[in-house]
Design goal:
By secondary structure, the chain is α/β, with parallel strands linked by helices. It is 24% helix and 21% strand. It has a single domain (2-186), classed as DHBP synthase (Alpha-Beta Complex), CATH 3.90.870.10. The strands form two sheets. Strands 2-3-7-4-6-5-9-10 form an eight-stranded mixed β-sheet, with helices on both faces.
Length: 194
């Protein structure tokens, strides 16, 4: 169902599934403690974690835990690559609902999209559990019409609410912190310089 940004934010805050553009591919999103809605809608395996997306880096640091040296390093990487198409998989704090990553609840993927619409929505909802808008195993959907066809109950934005923003159509790069170095889990739009 196509709605205004305000109604999409209200829907997200009330626990509905929503979809909005990002700088990579459109997101399917909900409140972190409602993450099971995404798994059910996508018919997604529980062993595939979701990403916690925020409007700015400061909104996300309370969801991770590490030494002050690690936190400083992670913040340096975030300052260089965010907002952008890089997901950092870091040790999760107790704030992260386990249903975000049932296979390994000790980690959480974090991202700040380089998208004015996504940042505007996330600044009002707070960090959301996100993934690409598609049925599991299918390519990411790119248009509101495709998303509505696959997910008729998901709130999407009216065409008048969509500014002309370039999405690159390539998923984010995903890197995981392994207690001393970065491991690339998925090479996407960003090339991380270690």
């Amino acid at each position: 169902m196509q709605v205004s940004i305000q109604d999409l934010v209200k829907g997200a805050l009330s626990g509905s599934l929503v979809s909005f553009p990002t700088d990579t591919v459109p997101a399917l999103a909900t409140l972190p403690h409602k993450a099971e809605l995404i798994f059910a809608a996508k018919q997604r395996s529980q062993d595939k974690p979701l990403i916690l997306m925020g409007a700015k880096a400061e909104d996300l640091w309370s969801y991770v835990t590490g030494s002050s040296e690690e936190l400083q390093l992670w913040q340096q990487v975030a300052a260089k690559y965010w907002a952008g198409a890089l997901t950092l998989v870091l040790p999760a704090s107790e704030r992260v609902p386990p249903e975000m990553n049932l296979a390994d609840p000790t980690t959480i993927g974090l991202r700040v999209p380089n998208s004015a619409i996504a940042q505007h929505i996330l600044s009002q909802t707070g960090p959301l559990a996100t993934t690409s808008a598609n049925l599991s195993g299918q390519p990411p959907l790119q248009t509101v019409a495709e998303i509505e066809s696959a997910f008729p109950d998901v709130l999407t934005l009216l065409p008048t609410e969509l500014a002309i923003e370039e999405s690159i159509g390539v998923p984010s790069t995903v890197v995981k912190w392994n207690g001393g170095n970065w491991q690339t889990l998925r090479q996407g739009a960003v090339k991380l310089e270690f």
